[in-house]
Predict the structure.
Amino acid sequence: QVQLVESGGGLVQPGGSLNLSCVASGSRFTINKMGWYRQAPGKERELVATHTGGYYINYADSVEGRFTISRDKGTVYLQMNSLKPEDTAVYYCTATTRSPAGVFSDYWGQGTQVTVSS
């Protein structure tokens, strides 16, 4: 089992910045992908950004150019700049492991609240 612990959420004014962190522990296999999703009240969970294989990065259109994902082994970061009220959501860290047999497994953190408001 992989445990994911997020930190860095909070309240910020529009135009401000936050940096989220997520540390993975307990993995027996290679962590192939790490990333961030978010869920706003009354909405479905959506992709924010993912970091795969150490080199492939994917962003949602809504955050492209404002958010930056980075990864250092079992830790993934999300630098969020120029925050907007519509970025308000619970942000979830995710990790995907790959076993030697080629089986992929997904894990989720408990989530951290990000609120953008004046």
